[in-house]
Amino acid sequence: MTLSTALKTGDLSALPSRRDEDWRWTDLRGLLKALPPAAPAHDGEVPAGPFAGLAAAETVFVNGRRMTASDAASGVVALRFVALSDKAAQGASHVIVVKPGESLVLLESHEGRAGAYVSDVALDIAVGEGASLERIVLVDDDAEAVNVVTAEVTLAPGAKFAQTVLTGGARRQRIETRVRHPGAHAEVRLDGAYLLDAQRHADLTSVVTHGGLDGVTSQLTKGMVTDQARGVFQGRIVVEKGADQTDARMGHHALILSDKAEIDAKPELLIFADDVSCAHGNTIGALDDEVLFYAKQRGIPEAEAKAMLTVAFVGEVIERIAHEGARELAAAWVARKLGSEA
Question: pLDDT digits over 24-39, tens only?
Answer without folding.
Answer: 999 999 999 999 999 9
